[in-house]
């Protein structure tokens, strides 16, 4: 089963929180941590990781805090997940007997991985906030 860490959940919550604030007003770590009941130190570490991956900007000073690095329409769920979890790679050979790998077990898992990357990369932060997560092709009968 594919499972993301609590850190990823916290990071998504933080990004949503920042996106809800005016784009020119930095949001403090303390505000984010308090609003989402996330430990302050962990929130700071996660935000710095998001800064390193170009998803947030950090402003220093008394009125400092964090801003989105790009409009929420241009930040994807896939980018947030990868910033925290690292490269998303399903290893089809992990805990799989060698005979299963030899009988083309890797191909279906590779296809699942590609679809997962496509799906996560197709969900913008703005779309996540709006709650419109249905597949654009959903409902097509073709």
Can you summarize this structure?
Helices cover 53% and strands 6% of the residues. It is mainly alpha-helical and 142 residues long.
Description of the structure:
Helix 2 packs across helix 3 and helix 4 (77-85) crosses helix 5 (98-121). The chain has a single domain (6-130), classed as Arc Repressor Mutant, subunit A. The protein has six helices and two strands. Helix content is 53%, strand content 6%. The protein is elongated, with a radius of gyration of 18 Å. It has 142 residues and is mainly alpha-helical. Residues 136-142 have low confidence and may be disordered. Strands 1-2 form a two-stranded antiparallel ribbon. A hairpin with a 5-residue loop joins strand 1 (56-59) and strand 2 (65-68).
Distance between the termini: 30 Å
Helix content: 40-55%
Task: Give a count of the beta strands, DSSP E runs of length 2 or more.
Answer: 2
Structural class: mainly alpha
Average pLDDT, rounded to a whole number, is: 84
CATH topology tier name: Arc Repressor Mutant, subunit A
Oligomer: single chain
Shape: elongated
Q: How do the helices and strands follow one another from N- to C-terminus?
A: HHHEEHHH
CATH architecture: Orthogonal Bundle
Low-confidence stretches: 136-142
Beta-strand percent range: 5-15%
**Largest sheet, order of strands side by side?**
1-2
Count the domains.
Answer: 1
Number of H/I helices: 6
- Our Rg estimate from Cα atoms comes to 18 Å
Top-tier CATH class: Mainly Alpha
Q: Assign the CATH superfamily.
A: Winged helix-like DNA-binding domain superfamily/Winged helix DNA-binding domain
Largest sheet features: 2 strands, antiparallel
